[in-house]
Amino acid sequence: MPSGELLVDLDVFQGPFDLLVTLILREEIDLWEVSVSRIIADYVVRLADSFEFDLEATSHFVVLVASLLELKSRLLLDLDAAGEEDGIDPAAAGEELLASLVRYAQFSNAARGIAARWEEHSGRLYRQASLPTRFRCVQAGSERLPAQSLASALKPLLREPPLPDASHITDMAATLLRELRRLRSVLQLKGELSFFAVAPRDRLEKAITFFALLELHNRGEVRLQQPRAFADIRVVPVAGAAR
Q: Nearest Cα to 65, choosing from 10, 24, 95, 29?
């Protein structure tokens, strides 16, 4: 039996049990004048007379009754055991009871939603049998195809794929080894040189020329002189250096 359909008959109130709880929370009815044990006895008697047991409705009733008992117990502790020292406040207890009821309502609504989804989709059955044989293979027709048809079908598979387009890739005209040889030849002819005079215009080839000069410097074949940052680099050969 839903708690909303449970009618209570007390000295201070007559009507649905849910409405009684609401009036208690609003402090329109004094909880001292409500006999919770009598409400429980009436519910048990009516539950015994009914032939169906609603777990959700009974759970809702138990939550409400337990909350009322907790609230009344705190009121008793407040009177008998110096409640201010224990931190027991009837107003706070009422707010906690209201928050518990709201949480219960949220979970109850979620449970009803899940139950409705289950009732809607539980009747669906998924196919467990394998696909029939007549659908797994295609029956060949009575017409026979010539051998040339098979060759025509395999011809696209035997065709060589087109070569990828590499026109966007820059072809390097200089390598480090070739640049070393070129710089050594220029040094033998002119004795010394500058970086700006021998470096190509292309940025990548200019970087290779710079790396070649550093390699010559590391080997002790030349000395690099630069008066200031970003200025031209003067390359002077070292006398007697092995090449």
A: 24
